[in-house]
Amino acid sequence: MFEDIEDQELMELIKNENLDAFNELYSRYGRLVFNLAYKWTRSINEAEEVTQEVFEKIWVRRNTYVMKKSKVSSWIYKICQNTAFDFLRRKKKTSYLDESQLDFLVDDNINLENEIEIHAIRQLLKNAIADLPKEQQEIIKLMYFEGKTQKEIAASLNIPLGTVKSRVKLAMTKLRRKIKR
Amino acid sequence: MLDNSRTERGLDELNLQLQLDTEPVDPPENLRKKIMKNIAERKPIRVKARND
């Protein structure tokens, strides 16, 4: 129902307490928030806790989102970053994080607002995906353009989950290499 | 065919995932349900104004 509307329009619906719009927001950002949290906590259970906390905060603070100030993705990223930081501090788990990971958490290195840069990266990624072997391309497209989980992809292509994961790993390595060039 | 904004969102997510330098992990299947349940419980019930 809301799949094709822009993020900012979605936020306006969420401000009006529309739960279906909130469910769509989870479809768009749930996996990303979970993966950010997983990167920082290194635990599936804790990443789940952080993700729950992030989405609760998004709901509670929905009226504080100002369209002109930032993109929805940047706003969510910031909430995620702060929530993960507070979580790690609370749990006193920072001891196993090395310096670079803490920098990643504290500093705003990831630029989600520079439209020119974002446009260039999108184009670079499109070309890089097109250069992947067909079976890796297919999986990346299903994951990122259709929002499917790796488990759903395995079921729909009738291949083992392990095969999906190894194709994703190979594809990500190649894509990472290309965008770092 | 997918519309642009969905494709762009996918590319942005992929880009961020690549920057994380970790392989993507599926969130637990019941996570969406848990979150939506929590939110629904927080959501105040709206009572329609009576006309009488």
Question: What structural keywords apply?
Answer:
heterodimer; A: 181 residues; mainly alpha; Rna Polymerase Sigma Factor, Chain: A; Arc Repressor Mutant, subunit A; 9 helices; globular; B: mainly alpha
Distance between the termini of chain B: 52 Å
Quickly count the domains of chain B: 1
Question: Could you spell the SSE succession of chain B in H and E letters?
Answer: HH
Proper CATH architecture of the largest domain in chain A = Orthogonal Bundle
Low confidence ranges of chain B: none
Please identify the structural class of chain B as seen in this structure.
Answer: mainly alpha
The top-level CATH class of the largest domain in chain A is: Mainly Alpha
Quickly give the structural class of chain A.
Answer: mainly alpha
Largest sheet features of chain A:
none
In round numbers, the mean pLDDT of chain A is: 88
Estimate the helix proportion of chain A, in percent.
over 70%
Could you report the average pLDDT of chain B, rounded to the nearest whole number?
81
Oligomer category: heterodimer
Binned, the helix content of chain B reads 55-70%
How much of the residues of chain B is beta strand, in percent?
Answer: under 5%
CATH superfamily of the largest domain in chain A: RNA polymerase sigma factor, region 2, helix turn helix motif
Shape of chain B: elongated
What gyration radius of chain B follows from the Cα positions, in whole Å? 19 Å
